[in-house]
Amino acid sequence: MKALRGAVLAGYMPRSAMSGRAEELFGNPDPRVRSAALGALHRQGWLTPERAAGALGDPDPLVRRRVCELAGASPGSYLGIGELVGALEDPDPLVAEMAAWALGEHGAVEEETGEESVTTGLSAMASGHPDPLCREAAVGALGARADPTTLATVISALEDRPAIRRRAAVALAAFDDPAADEALRSCLADRDWQVRQVAEELLA
């Protein structure tokens, strides 16, 4: 507990003091300490892409999820698009879900991986991931990116669980396409009242 408290407080230390503690914190066997250390370095402005990439390979999902979260909060600063696309296939669904959210926070892709790898990865998650939270996050990310080639995937999500249908309805509003408008109007007859409400508000 003392080590965890120290890792949290490190984010509020003078930057010079934090530099000497980074290796100690990241070498701690407690994943909560390593996760808190990522947040401390982020707060201090010292989290590097190299350190973030190392955290993405951490054996504990808590650390991997935290670095994906930080990558989404600071797009382009810590993890590359290719690394986040790879994290969509993380065996822990909470890590994969956070990677999808982070990709939704990124703007236009200018890296070698290209937009195609992002849309392919998110579309595959939205339509086929066994965890509904991952499918929901992927649909939300597709809406945030609003790539016209993914509209069919978002529309097909209207056949999923209620929470995912609600997310899909919101995502449809980002697409400038008559098919998106038609799909949103179809939500007015959805059996879930929250889906209907979302559609009513967006169409109004």
**Which strand-content bin applies to the residues?**
under 5%
The assigned structural class equals mainly alpha
Please report the total strand number as a whole number: 0
Cα-to-Cα separation, first versus last residue: 52 Å
Q: State the share of residues found in helices, binned by percent.
A: 55-70%
Just name the CATH architecture of the domain at 79-203.
Alpha Horseshoe
From the alpha carbons, calculate the radius of gyration and give it in angstroms: 19 Å
Query: Superfamily at the CATH H level of the domain at 79-203?
Result: Leucine-rich Repeat Variant
Question: In CATH terms, what is the fold-level topology of the domain at 79-203?
Answer: Leucine-rich Repeat Variant
Quick one: CATH class of the domain at 79-203? Mainly Alpha
Helix count, DSSP H or I runs of 4 or more residues: 14
What pattern of helices and strands is seen along the backbone? HHHHHHHHHHHHHH
Dominant shape: elongated
Return residue spans where pLDDT drops below 50 for at least 5 consecutive residues.
109-113
Main sheet, how many strands, which sense, barrel?
A: none
Provide the residue-averaged pLDDT: 87
Oligomeric organization of the protein chains: single chain
